[in-house]
Every structure is written in structure tokens, then in C-alpha cells.
Amino acid sequence: MLRSPPYIIDTIYSDFLNAWEIKKEYNLTWKIWDDLIIVAQMRRAGITNILSNDADFDKIPFIKRIF
Predict the structure, then answer these.
(1) How far apart are CA 7 and CA 53, in angstroms?
(2) What is the pLDDT of residue 67?
(3) Peptide bond before 6: cis, by omega within 30 degrees of 0?
(4) Strand 64-66 relative to strand 49-51, pairing
(5) For the chain, how are helix, strand and coil distributed in percent, rounded to 5?
(6) What confidence tens digit (pLDDT) does each residue in 33-42 have?
């Protein structure tokens, strides 16, 4: 868990591949590609909670949106 800012998680090529797999796994649209990239990064970093008012994150069962 990330405890104190700032933490930067670089976007790498595999994040795009994983985002595409998450999209397919949960039958989502690529219109939320930016959220899917964030989720792929979160998965890679072992993060499951996000502070956001973006309800698109609710479509992904292993992410808990807090807001």
C-alpha cells in the first residue's frame, strides 16, 4: 500500500496489454481505456483501493472505489 506521496508508477507497455485483458475479462468498452490503464497499473503494484468519483472503476470487481 502506498502510504505517503508522491509515488509515481510509470506506464509500461505491458500495462496496455493487461488493460486490454481486463477489458475483455469484464466485457468493458475501450472508451474507458484510461481507467483500464490505471487499473492495470494498480494491479501490477498490488493496489486495490482508489480515491475517485469516477464510477467506471465500480465495473471492475477487484477495485474498491472510495469517495
Answers:
(1) 20
(2) 78
(3) yes
(4) parallel
(5) 50, 10, 40
(6) 999 999 999 9
Phi then psi for residue 39, to 5 deg, are -65, -40
Asked whether 36 and 50 are in contact (CB, 8 A), the reply is no
Secondary structure class of 22 (helix, strand, coil): helix
Strand partners for 50: 65
Number of H helices, E strands in the chain: 2, 2
> Which cell goes with 63?
477495485
Q: How far apart are CA 42 and CA 51, in angstroms?
A: 12
5: its cell numbers: 506521496
